[in-house]
Amino acid sequence: MAVRRRKKNRFGFLKKKFPTRMQRKLVMLFMAVMLAFAVLIGRITWINLTKGSSYTRVVLDQQNYDSRVIAFKRGDIVDRNGTKMAVSERVYNVILDVAVMTDKEAYIEPTKAALAECFGIEESVVDELVEESPDSQYEILAQGVDYETAQKFREIDSDEENHPNVKGVWLEEDYTRSYPYGTLASDVIGFTYDGDQGAIGIESAYNDVLNGTDGREYGYFDAESSIERTVKPARNGDTVVSTIDVTLQSIVEKCILEFNEAHADENSPGSKNTAVIIMNPNTGEILAEASYPNFDLNEPRDLSLLYSEEEWDEMAEEEQVEAMNALWRNFCVSDAYEPGSTAKPFTIAAALESGKLTGNEKYYCGGSKTVLDADISCAHKAGHGQETVQDAMAYSCNVALMDIALDMGAEDFCRYQHIFGFGEYTGIDLPGEAETSGLLYSADDMSAVDLATNSFGQNFNVTMTQLMSGFCSLINGGYYYEPHIVKQIQDEEGSVIETKDPVLLRKTVSPETSSMVKEYMKAVMDYGTGRSTQVEGYEIGGKTGTAEKLPRGNGKYLLSYIGFAPLDNPEIAIYVIIDEPNTIVQADSSLVLGLSKSIMEEAFPYLGITTIAESEEETKTEGTAVESSEYTDYDANYEETYDNPDGAYIDEDYEPDLDDWASTQSPQ
């Protein structure tokens, strides 16, 4: 039997031939593998395009080798003209990489010498770090280093010829908050703590806007164990453009300081509080807002103006905290008080608007009025005699105002108090607005005596912002605008990203009522209690106030003046308060009238307020008596209303003491 032999190839190996069926299966398998690879590559490409950056961040976070924070720059606060009032200045932190510095013995001493020369860092501090953390790559040696100091180190660090062995030190950029004008608008601007947390003022109210987001620089090992770095840049904060005018603010604060310095002594400042608001009555924009005593925003915890070093050291920690909070408190927003006779325009406006007053009425003041067996006297105890509504405003007659309010009734009176914003939040974009809803009577619990005393501004409480906002509606035709301190938000490039437009909240009175009230307040300036405040060349309306503080009879008063110009189309409104002036007789309205005049004399020309000469409408010259006045029983040029040992001028509208006035305690 013959044996079949298999063929061998030229290398002596037997040839193996796959069956056709097997070959087809192998081809199909190969094609399937290639297809799988194609699908996998496609999937990876799609993931990389759509989610690559997010997965990259995850990988970087998981493979983190080292990282450092890139600080954001807090946004600036500027005035309405772009003048910077709060800025974040670039500073540097000195960082030591201990591992690099100790990598060679030759690096240690030169590096320590450079640190001592440039930053004043003692060698012992560096030695301690080397001993405690020999492998550390991030140790903060100094913070807040200025540019000049940082530049000095950079020159040494880059000088390889003379300083080749300075190693392991680098500068990390950071920012510190500063206030170029120091004390200017301190209550309004506010300050920061813990780096970038606003404490009061705009810094607090717009903290989220001013703050940005920190960036980060990551270091990690790549596949070849080389260090790679990835930077996520910081997003800087936005700029807040305030409604404040720095020049006008400076005028106001200069006048306030001059007044208080003139009346201060070794034991007391010139007043407990002196505060001013200047507002655009047609928009609700606050152009200036200041209070005394103020503080340096760069050193907010320095109370050396108020306390000696010995006095401060003797205070307990709780007392020191209380003292600082009192200093940082914004009187214009956060303090409630009895307004006194600056409330009288509101009483008359409410009576006119409710139809209970026409303006043609006449009243008789005999020096006091009996209400529910309580004798409530007028400031001019001899009485004003026969007078018109205009005279009642001009001479600030309590008796006439009580008659007007009693005729109007408690229901309408209380309703208009709320329409004018008393007892309501104004919506001012500053923190700490006082709650005053519980400091007003309701119509149900208001007695006739309460109504009478409320009519001339006693026995209820307001804030400066409340009264000023309501007052602006009285003089602008009846439009109540939300008061605001911020005008715009801009990004770091200066592009406007948000505009704070004026917000009209409601109508308070008709244009006719507004016109009548303005004419009455012109009479105050022409021949009434505010005549000494008149500024030559301007037609001004205004009202004075002298409110006796609780408890009655303690000799403590709050003096005030509120005014506007020009008369027909008011462009500006000003409200000035002196709380407990440091004088023997506090009920001296010449103090607040003098301060108000000094502010207006500088502010009006700066602001370009329309003068009498510039006005296109017919106006009366300064000092001309209004023909409708039939007031003849009283000399309008009186200097005193009662014996005054200091010879001070006592305002006609100071609020009287009452023998039986049990309800004068403000409702709680």
Short account of what is shown:
This protein is of the alpha+beta class and 668 residues long.
Task: For the structure shown, list the relevant keywords.
elongated, alpha+beta, 7-stranded mixed β-sheet, 668 residues, 5-stranded antiparallel β-sheet, 23 strands, 20 helices, 20% strand
Q: What do these coordinates show?
A:
This protein has 668 residues and is of the alpha+beta class. It contains 20 helices and 23 strands. Strands 2, 3, 4, 5, 10, 18 and 19 form a 7-stranded mixed sheet that branches. α3 runs antiparallel to α5 and α15 crosses α17. It is elongated and about 130 Å long. The termini are far apart.
Low-confidence stretches: 60-65, 618-651, 654-668
Helical/strand content category: alpha+beta
The strand count comes to 23
Instruction: Characterize the biggest β-sheet.
Output: 7 strands, mixed
User: How far apart, in Å, are the first and last alpha carbons?
Assistant: 131 Å
- Helix content class: 25-40%
Discrete helix count: 20
The fraction of residues in strands falls at: 15-25%
Q: Rg from C-alpha positions?
A: 38 Å
Morphology call: elongated
Mean pLDDT: 85
